[in-house]
Specification:
This protein has 8 helices and 6 strands; from the N terminus they run αββαβααββαβααα. By secondary structure, it is an alpha+beta fold. The strands form 2 sheets. It has a 4-stranded antiparallel beta sheet.
Length: 206
């Protein structure tokens, strides 16, 4: 599975180089009106890859930030980089809470399933939209309660540089992963935060 994920990343880079954005829409941001078949297949591949983990998702989580979306492409890219770095610390903290040092030694078994998406990067800043995370969360230890999860998520999200107290944690429904990848359908593959995706393959038996 790790090899497959690396191949997807390489494909994404190749497609983005070939299919540079040529139009701007106030609804979906920059996109190429004449996608190649390769790009369309890549979009479908990324979407299906995330959807394949749907049955392992236990909770749906939304985390709001204070980052207002920028129109300028360079500045928006810098926003995404900074936000991903912020989320990386958050992810490590909550993983350590539930699995401790064992998670460092055996991450393919003792780590949370985390599938994050940054929503808002494909939209214009009209109405002062802010970037926010949607994520599917799974492989929670059996002894962890819903209340404990909510407390841990809130505690560590508020420790981040950009996190706000607008946090939602719910039991996941079957359509959650389809919902959070809706920007992928529009061609915005960068909304998928590959860097911070965490997939404990052995624990999930995949």
């Amino acid at each position: 599975m790790e090899i497959r994920e690396n191949i997807l990343k390489d494909k994404r880079k190749e497609a983005l180089e070939r299919d540079r954005p040529t139009h701007y829409s106030s609804k979906i941001g920059y996109f190429n009106a004449n996608w190649t078949n390769h790009h369309r297949l890549l979009v479908d591949d990324v979407k299906n890859h995330y959807l394949s983990y749907s049955r392992h998702i236990q909770y749906s989580i939304t985390l709001q930030t204070r980052l207002i979306i920028k129109r300028d492409k360079f500045r928006s890219e810098q926003q995404l980089i900074s936000l991903q770095e912020d989320f990386w610390h958050f992810k490590n903290r909550i993983n350590y809470h539930f699995y401790g040092k064992t998670g460092h030694r055996k991450p393919h078994i003792y780590s949370l399933l985390i599938l994050p998406v940054i929503e808002g990067s494909a939209f214009s800043p009209e109405g002062e939209r802010t970037l926010h995370y949607h994520l599917g969360l799974g492989n929670i230890p059996d002894e962890a309660s819903f209340n404990e999860l909510c407390i841990v998520i809130r505690k560590h999200w508020l420790k981040t540089k950009f996190g706000t107290d607008m946090i939602r944690v719910k039991s996941a429904d079957p359509d959650w992963m389809d919902y959070i990848t809706k920007e992928v359908d529009r061609g915005n593959i960068d909304c998928v935060d590959w860097r911070n995706a965490s997939i404990p393959h052995e624990a999930l038996h995949i």
